[in-house]
Structures are given as structure tokens and as C-alpha cells.
């Protein structure tokens, strides 16, 4: 499904999705209370709405609808929740490019969710996966800020992501990065050349 969508709208989002999937599987194995393969598939599908074209925030609605129509409830939910570590639809990177009715619908749904560990897993993994691989959260945050700019909610959103990191690390008793292969190379490049 991801490959097909990548042919419909080629872009770095496809490799980003693969790395979110790998990160989610790695952390799910380490955390032990989520199905790693299921998390892997949810990761592959979290930005699947990008199959509909070069859109901005509307990709989350397109993904939600596409997967809901197919009956894939959990990944459909992730399409929405992964973008909102704080439950406020103003807290976005980029812009809304949907109708006011659709925006209101997203507002209602995001407001209505009680976040689970699975939602938080994808809020975290989305924030640490570049198309080239998993990196230090701060590096991906800077990458997004440089591409999309920042708004009044950016710092709150970053803080919420760090809270999720801390929560998972308390459970793991170690750094999340120990479960994400290649973080040092992807973050700092080759240190030996
Ligand atoms: Fe993403």
C-alpha cells in the first residue's frame, strides 16, 4: 500500500514512513505491551493520506478516510493522533488546507480521543524519523521548524514530545535511542571519515 502510494505521490514521506515503522517496531519490542508487527504496519500507514497528492495538513484527513473506508480502524486513528501530542489542532507544523467543515470534524475527533500508549508511540516516532533514518528528536524538530517555520504552539508541542520520551524511558529504564539502530550515524554523520 505504501509503495503504491509512493508511486502516486513520490517524495521523502515514503522513506520517513518506513523509518517511523522501524522505530515503532523497535520500541514496541522493548516496551513489551504492544504488538511489534502491528505497530510496524501502523507506522508504514501513518502518513498514507499523502497518496492523494501534495497536500499539507489535509493528508491526515485523507489518510483517516482512506483507512477507515478499508476498515482499518487503528491505523486510521494514528493518521490523526500522530500529529497532535497536544490535543489542539492549532498546534501544527505547516498549514491547514481543508474546508472549514473538515477542520471542525478533525477538531471534534482529536478533542474526543483519550490518548493511549499507541498514540503516544507514533507521536514520538514521527518526531524522530527523517527520510534518511532515525535521529535525535532535536534534530528532526529543527528540520521541521526550518521547513515549515514555527508558531505559538511549537514549544508546547516539543515539550509534550519530550514528556512522551521521558515516560517511555522511565518504563524502559534506559534511553529510547538504544532501541533505534543508526541514531548516532544518522544524527551526526560518519565520525570516522
Ligand atoms: Fe509522519
Which kinds of small molecule does this entry bind, naming each only once? fe (ii) ion
Mean pLDDT rating: 95
| CA-CA gap between termini | 38 Å
Q: Spans of 5+ residues with little confidence (pLDDT < 50)?
A: none
Largest sheet: 2 strands, antiparallel
Q: Tell me the domain tally.
A: 1
Count of helical regions: 10
- Estimated radius of gyration: 16 Å
Order of helices and strands: HHHHHHHEEHHH
The proportion of residues in beta strands is: under 5%
Class of secondary structure makeup:
mainly alpha
Helix amount:
55-70%
Number of strands: 2
Categorize the overall geometry: globular
Instruction: Give the strand order of the largest sheet, numbering strands 1, 2, ... along the chain.
Output: 1-2
Amino acid at each position: 500500500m505504501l509503495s503504491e502510494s509512493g508511486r502516486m505521490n513520490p517524495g521523502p514521506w515514503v522513506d520517513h514512513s518506513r523509518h517511523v515503522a522501524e522505530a515503532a517496531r523497535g520500541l514496541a519490542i522493548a516496551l513489551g505491551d504492544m504488538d511489534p508487527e502491528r505497530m510496524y504496519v501502523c507506522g508504514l500507514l501513518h502518513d498514507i493520506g499523502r497518496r492523494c497528492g501534495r497536500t499539507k495538513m489535509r493528508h491526515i484527513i485523507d489518510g483517516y478516510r482512506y483507512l477507515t473506508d478499508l476498515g482499518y480502524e487503528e491505523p486510521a486513528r494514528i493518521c490523526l493522533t500522530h500529529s497532535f501530542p497536544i490535543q489542539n489542532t492549532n498546534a501544527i507544523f505547516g498549514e491547514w488546507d481543508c474546508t472549514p467543515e473538515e477542520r471542525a470534524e478533525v477538531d471534534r475527533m482529536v478533542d474526543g480521543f483519550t490518548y493511549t500508549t499507541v498514540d503516544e508511540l507514533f507521536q514520538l516516532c514521527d518526531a524522530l524519523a527523517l527520510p534518511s533514518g532515525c535521529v535525535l528528536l532535536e534534530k528532526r524538530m529543527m528540520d521541521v521548524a526550518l521547513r515549515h517555520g514555527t508558531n505559538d504552539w511549537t514549544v508546547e508541542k516539543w515539550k509534550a514530545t519530550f514528556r512522551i520520551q521521558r515516560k517511555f524511558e522511565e518504563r524502559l529504564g534506559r534511553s529510547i535511542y538504544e532501541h533505534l539502530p543508526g541514531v548516532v550515524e544518522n544524527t551526526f554523520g560518519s565520525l570516522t571519515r
